[in-house]
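Two entries, shown back to back:
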Amino acid sequence: MQHTPNILVIRRRYLGDIVLLGSLLRSLKAHWPAARVTALVEKPYGEILALNPDVDSVLALPARRLEWPGFLRRLRRAGFTHVIDIDNTEKTALVARASGAAFRVALHHGDHPLKLRSMYTHAVYDPGEQHEARPITEYYLKALEPLAVPVAGREVRLVPREADMAYWRRFVGARGRVLLVHPGSRSPARIWPMERFAAVCDRVQDDLGAQVVLVGGPGERRLLSEIRGLAHTHVLAVDDPPSLSRFAALARVSSALLCHDSGPMHVAAAVRTPVIALYGSQNPVLFRPHGEGHTQVIPSQPCAPCVAPDACVPGDSYRTFCVRQVTVDRVFADVRKTLGSKDYRDRG
């Protein structure tokens, strides 16, 4: 085995899951400063890892069958010595084995048996109750155990480009408080009503004198237009969805982010911007925003009465509408507290 490790970390998706690899990647680099660390992700998520100083390169998982032969040749030629597979799928197990790495670690948890155990040299299991009771970053760090790599810290860090931040400073204004609002979510059931977002935007601008900026991802223009149409104050909006790296820069120059429990939440937390995150019935511990100074707006459980009895699917957090319990007054109070906090003023 080479003296200098050449490490492949596999986490195909999603945005927040990939951002939260930060403390695992930091520990690998702290233990082996000369190591080369490559992340294997689906193509849309590769860009965000360019902002992680502990990632040397990114491989994109093929999206089409015709791409696989060339990908496997590149994988083998890369000469990986270690593979850490966090995904626990048959496809990633085969990728791990095809890499030729002598040291191959897989993670699995709860009721999810390990796929293709023979493809790995080591397996790490996280019991279900323990897995659900801690941040997902602690699960990732368990992959270090077979490598005898100590945990170097639990920071999750992205470093936006200065040119991108300079651009957004001109857009939002160099002075004053800026509340960035991202109203989208992968799950329609987890989306807070647009009229409530509009009401918070009005109160933030009228009562706090802060500027509100709306931003969304691909396919979320309708949400931004709806909020602007319902708001009574002038709300800025980023009309074209920014790239992930440019969104990170926009979050960094903003005073705070109001959003759902989502990938953008984790990006903002990783650039040290306080977040006010809206939750429904999902686990508020497992994927909480990493770091200090964040606010989780969590409705009481179970809903009594249910806010959407004809649509909710109890037990499926992607199909429950509990976020609709959250009131405008509660969210505005949390935004006001965040914008006035010492943590915000001192974040630099």
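entry 2 starts here
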Amino acid sequence: MDRTTRFAFALLLPLFSTAAFAQDDLDTDTREVKYKERTEIDFDGVDVTGELVKPQGTLTVERRKTEFNPLIKLRESFDTEMKQSVDEVK
């Protein structure tokens, strides 16, 4: 290290050390905040004026019938089983 660097370091060292001491003072300061148990707000003296704004158009939502993919195939004809059962009875 050359002389100017040492001199600058010697000047800046106390500056940084005081900042560290100042930080310790904040940590030791303990403040306790207490809030009221119950807060009451009185709106009797407040006048609220305004106007009702309605939409100019209408929105109609049309529901379509839900279609499901059938998991069971329903048979429409039992002709072959009926013929077999008649043959078994004979």
